[in-house]
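It is time I had a proper look at our fold encoding. Can you supply me with one protein entry, sequence and fold together? It will help me judge whether the discrete encoding reads sensibly. Leave the record below and I will have a look:
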Amino acid sequence: MATRLVQINMKARNDAALGGFWAQALGWEVSSEGPGVTNLEPEGFVYPDPVAVCIDLVVSPEPKTVKNRVHVDLATTSAEHQAEVVARLKDLGATAADVGQGDVPWTVLADPEGNEFCVLDPRPLYQDTGPIAAVVVDCADPRAMARFWSEATDWTLHEVTDQGARLRSAKGVGPYLEFVRTPDVKSGWNRVHLDVRPYPGDDLETEAARLRSLGATPIELGEKVRWRVFADPEGNEFCLLTPS
């Protein structure tokens, strides 16, 4: 048994407007499963497929107050392409962001609601990932996080050091999941979190028990939902969705 990373859940004050920004940024299609929820996925995509990690934007009145602990890195193919992507995103409403990165070859931006993301310099590693090169999670212990997430999902560990770790779908397609050491301390509920889903035929409660045995902590929302909410070993919330 295992789960798959299927999407990123991002809170938004205006899910439709922010969804429009990200749809244009990624070249993806927009849909909605109901009021206050905007779904983004590649054109012709058959969900779920590890070739892409989709984005769900869910309306929330709470303002963003701290740097997100989860963000996306966008891939580029050349220095010229990187400059073009940065200029295009700024035209769409992105702004330059300073998260203490200093002099680096990538560009840090914030979307119209302040969510940080990076436009990477061209790197061979990310040439076949699609527009999202990696989903990046800040953490204190990359080795421990890589151990948990590689056991929680069927994603394969590609690299691990004291400073960072990198996983990718066992099928070798789509973006990477990366854990980067940071001194920042988690504060409040993450506005961006990961959603995982069991395979068809697996049992939700059995998978929930397996995640608890690996070190996940259940979170009770106080309302009845079809999915289960957990925190990983560093307290980052994530959702276990129903099998599909």
